[in-house]
Write a structure and sequence with these properties.
- This protein is α/β, with parallel strands linked by helices.
- It folds into two domains: 147 residues, Response regulator (Rossmann fold); 235 residues, TIM Barrel (Alpha-Beta Barrel).
- The protein is 43% helix and 18% strand.
- Strand 4, helix 5 and strand 5 form a beta-alpha-beta unit.
- Helix 3 packs parallel to helix 4 and helix 8 crosses helix 9.
- The longest helix is centred in the middle third of the chain and has 37 residues.
């Protein structure tokens, strides 16, 4: 072999050598790594005892592999993540005293190419480096065992979570199919003469576990059954419309998602909509008001009126008002609560009433619980109100004054709509 050929072979051999930068805070470990790497034919380009120096060495030398101690000063994990982000051509192999207690799987998700436990054989270290350069990943047996345990635990947890989700969804579907709920009606009073103007249909659930209505509706939304539950409860409410006094309207709650589902015809097609108010709730965001108003237009043309709830309780309610152009605006219960003690609440309520008056929209004050609150909202010019102070949500049969034909012999025919609040019920939790 001539001299030139020998030089080419040496150059080719040099080109095949894998370059490495190592980082560990223990000098003895660095010396051990140096010996192993040299014996195995790797090029050691530099060593560091802290994260900052390791990052600097990688930036200067651009090695094939960075061998990083997980627990070194400055944070081995942070150094590994930064090296992977700033120098994607440098592969990162973790070299640590033990499989980390914080979890191997999260560490592997950061993009490291290998994980070797200190005290293992030099062959493990060599294999990890070669695997990294070759595009693979190597875990020492100890780390692999921990990763497998974590994966098993995670899969079991996910399986249990899915089982519970299926169970809850099945519970919602059964609740709807078996109508495990009842409708109660809360009077809406005209404050100008004290007579009922209409009722709001609310829902009470008999299914287990015992949960407030908003919890049931929220759970149905999470499992994609929100429209089905809303339509089922609204249909049950509208089933009482013929028994309601013909001078009274009925308000039913409809979320934007239900209005956009294309399924309103299931409950409205055969209904006399001149006595129906669709209350568009604020519980889900509206992305496209033009589409929503088009979805509601056919029912408005047939006589249905619209209400927007929670006015004064957030920006979204005012967006509803401006885009939907409702017939009713409902003052949020948070605005009405203790309004007699708060000039700021009074000022906002007065402004909303003035705004509604200019638009020709009727205002309903929700959540009236005391005579003091009632006096203030009446003085502010609010024409309509509802709340436990004016009438509790009850089955229609228990409110003869609201019936189409009140029973003449029923002692409750002279129903006082201003029954006191039942201490066992919270109006905030029973809103829907």
């Amino acid at each position: 072999m001539d001299h030139d050929q020998q030089g080419l072979d040496q150059q080719r051999l040099a080109q095949q050598r894998i370059s490495v930068v190592v980082a560990d805070d223990e000098p003895d470990v660095l010396e051990y790594l140096r010996i192993v790497l040299e014996i195995e034919g790797f090029d050691l380009l530099g060593s560091a005892q802290d994260a900052a120096t390791a990052i600097q060495l990688v930036a200067e030398h651009r090695p094939n592999v960075a061998l990083i101690d997980l627990e070194m000063p400055g944070g081995g994990l942070e150094a590994a993540q930064r090296i992977r982000a700033e120098h994607p051509d440098t592969h990162v192999v973790i070299f640590s005293a033990a499989a980390i207690s914080s979890g191997v799987l999260p560490l592997l998700s950061t993009g490291i190419d290998g994980y070797v436990v200190k005290g293992g054989s030099p062959e493990q270290l060599t294999q990890a480096i070669h695997s990294a350069v070759g595009g693979g990943a190597y875990l020492s047996p100890e780390v692999n065992r921990v990763a497998l345990e974590e994966l098993t635990t995670r899969l079991n947890a996910e399986e249990e979570m899915q089982r519970r989700r299926n169970e809850r969804r099945s519970r919602i579907i059964t609740l709807i199919a078996e109508s495990q709920f009842r409708v109660v009606l809360q009077p809406i009073i005209d404050l100008r003469d004290g007579a009922p103007h209409g009722v709001e249909a609310l829902t009470r659930f008999a299914a287990a576990p015992a949960q407030a209505p908003d919890v049931w509706f929220g759970e149905a939304d999470r499992f994609g059954e929100g429209p089905s539950l809303e339509l089922a409860t609204a249909a049950a409410a509208l089933g009482h419309l013929d028994d309601l006094h013909p001078d009274l309207c009925m308000t039913v709650n409809i979320s934007p998602s239900t209005a956009l589902s294309g399924r309103l015809g299931e409950i409205l097609e055969a209904t006399d909509l001149r006595r129906v108010v669709l209350e568009v709730t604020e519980h889900s965001a509206v992305v496209d008001y033009a589409t929503l108003t088009r979805a509601l237009a056919p029912w408005r043309e047939r006589g249905a009126r619209l209400a927007v709830d929670d006015a004064g309780g957030g920006y979204a309610s005012f967006a509803h008002i401006l885009n939907i152009a409702p017939d009713y605006i409902k003052l949020d219960i948070s605005l009405v609560r203790n309004i007699h003690r708060d000039p700021h609440r009074q000022a906002l309520a007065r402004a909303i009433c003035g705004f509604a008056d200019e638009l020709g929209v009727a205002v309903i004050a929700e959540g009236i619980e005391t005579e003091a609150e009632l006096s203030v909202v009446a003085a502010l010019g609010t024409p309509l109100a509802q709340g436990f102070h004016l009438g509790r949500p009850l089955p229609l049969a228990d409110q003869p004054a609201l019936l189409r034909t009140p029973p003449e012999t029923d002692e409750r025919a002279e129903l006082d709509l201003r029954d006191p609040i039942r201490a066992s019920e919270s109006p905030e939790r029973l809103r829907r």
